[in-house]
Description:
The protein is an all-beta fold.
Amino acid sequence: MYAIVETGGFQFKVEPGMKLNVPRIASKEGDSVKLEKVLLLGDGDDVKVGSPLVENASVEAEVLEHGRGKKIIVYKRKRRKGYERTQGHRQDYTRIEIKSIDQE
């Protein structure tokens, strides 16, 4: 069984037992979180597509850790103007493990 869920403005295809990094969730490590924005549920040939969400469906996940991603450099320059700007960015993330996909 698999599902497509939305969290933090991104969509992820998840399966039970899967570990993935999602944008930061305000929960402590070891806590259980419920992702209720389920856009699609699939089990073999049986696929349920929500409009926009699948009713009575949720995904149960456990927060493993919080972290920060790799640093990226944002560099801007305009030729012949003497304009240069450098800025760095590190995105916060939460590593979760999918425990179960529930459909009531």
